[in-house]
Specification:
The protein is mainly alpha-helical and 125 residues long. It contains 4 helices and no strands. It has one domain. Helix 2 packs antiparallel against helix 3. The longest helix is centred in the middle third of the chain and has 36 residues, at 62-97.
Amino acid sequence: MGRKYRRRKSAGASILRDTSSIAASGAPLKVFLFGVVGFLGLYFGFPLFLEGVIASNGEKGLMGGVATIIERRIIWSERLGIAVFLLCTGFALFRRFSDRKIGKQSQKISVVVAKAASRSIEKNT
C-alpha cells in the first residue's frame, strides 16, 4: 500500500498554523513579543528587503515582470504580518485572563479569523 501524500497548503497558511500552535502553549508576554517581532519582520523587514532587490536589479525587460510578482508578495507579507500580530495578541490576552487550554479547533478558528481581519485591515488602509 502506497504512502498517502497530503496536498501542500500555502506558505502563509503554514506560518499562521505554526504561529497559532506556538502561541497556544507559550507564556502571554512571550507570545505577545513573538507577535510584535513577527509583525515587524513581516510588515517592515521583508518588504524592505524585497524593495532593495527590485531597486538593485531594475525594472526593465524580464525583471519588470518579476518586479510585479515581487510587489504582490510584498502585499502578502504585509497581510501575514498583520495576521501574526493579531493572532499572537489574541492568544496572549486570552491566556492572560483565562486559565483554560486552547484546543486545536480553537486554533484553526483563530487562524481563519486572523486571516479575514488582516485582509479587511489591509483593504481599509
